[in-house]
Structure formats: C-alpha cells, structure tokens
Amino acid sequence: MEFLREARRNFRRFDATRYAYKNVPDYLLQCGSFFKPQALPDDVRLLVAHCPPKRCYVVSFTLSKVWKTSLRYVEGWALSRSGSPIEHAWCIDEHDVVVDGQWGVHADVGAAYFGIVFETTKMGRKPPYIDDFKRRHPLLKRVLEQASGAGRRTLQSKRPI
To answer: How far apart are CA 84 and CA 87, in angstroms?
Structure first.
C-alpha cells in the first residue's frame, strides 16, 4: 500500500479538468481493495499450465470467461514474494480469494494483491481496463452529464464498473 501512496505522489498527473483521478495509483487507492492469496487450485493449474508467462491480462480474462465456477476478473498491483510491486491481473473466487493463473504456475503466488473487480461482460472490450493508455484511460476520466432538472451540464466522475 505504501508503494501506491508513493506512486500517487510521483507518477505523472492527469489534467484535472478531464480526469477524475490524479493518476492510476490514485484511482486504485480510492476504489481498490485487498484480496487474500492462496495456492493455485490443481484443476486451474492444469488448465493454464501451457500459457506463457507475462500474459496475466489474457489468462485472467479467459479464466473469468470459461471457468466452470464463477471467477471474477481483477486488475491492480500485486506484491511478488521477492517484494517487488507489479501491475497485474488475476481472478477471485466466490469467497474473494485470489486465483492467479500466472504467478501460481510460473512462480510462487504473490504475497499481497490490491485491485479492482471488473464485470468483463459489461466492459465491452478486452483488458487492460485501468492502465489503458491506448484509449487514454477512459475509466479515470470525467464525463459530461446532464444535471437532473436544472438543465445545466456538470462534470461527474465516471465510477468503476
């Protein structure tokens, strides 16, 4: 968590007239939560064992779509066992426990996970969702919406999905 606070201070800041959050770490700190790590279940390990490393977004997105029980897709930062914080994607089960189809296969499961759950069916596109520089970070932007009854336009934050 301290890493994200430090990153919020040091990362490039977005234009406050267009973005609801200062930067990606600010968005995570305001909207994210911790998730409990666990060893990768054997049935999931068999499914993802052939997946190459460094494909956490694709592997987690696919797991959330095809797994027989409800796995939900999460993006955020994870702390590796060596102590390095890394942008990462994983799934969580119905008990909000981590199912990490990348680190659980290619390395030890992370020491800590902090992120935001996304309903991929509502996103209308493939990940990444948070640090989506190609689309200029749409989740972090402010959107113009009609104020109810007043007939004037106001800026409102676009909330996480």
So the answer is: 10
Cα gap 3→21, rounded to integer Å: 17
Crossing angle of the two packed helices 24-31 and 2-10, in degrees rounded to 10: 140
Secondary structure of 50-92 in HEC code, one letter for each residue: CCCCCCHHHHHHHHHHHCCCCCEEEEEEEECCCCCEEEEEEEE
pTM value > 0.85? no
pLDDT tens for each residue of 25-73: 999 999 999 999 998 888 888 888 888 888 999 999 999 988 867 899 9
Distance from C-alpha of 74 to C-alpha of 13, rounded to nearest angstrom: 24
Enumerate the domain spans of the chain.
2-157
The vertex-92 CA angle with 41 and 78, nearest 5°, equals 95
- Written as one letter, the residue type at 87 is E
Nearest to 104, CA basis, from 28, 146, 44: 44
> CA quadruple 32, 34, 40, 41: dihedral positive or negative?
negative
CA–CA distance, 22 with 38 (Å, rounded to integer): 32
Q: How far is CA 121 from the centre of its chain?
A: 15
Beta bridge partners of 112: 79
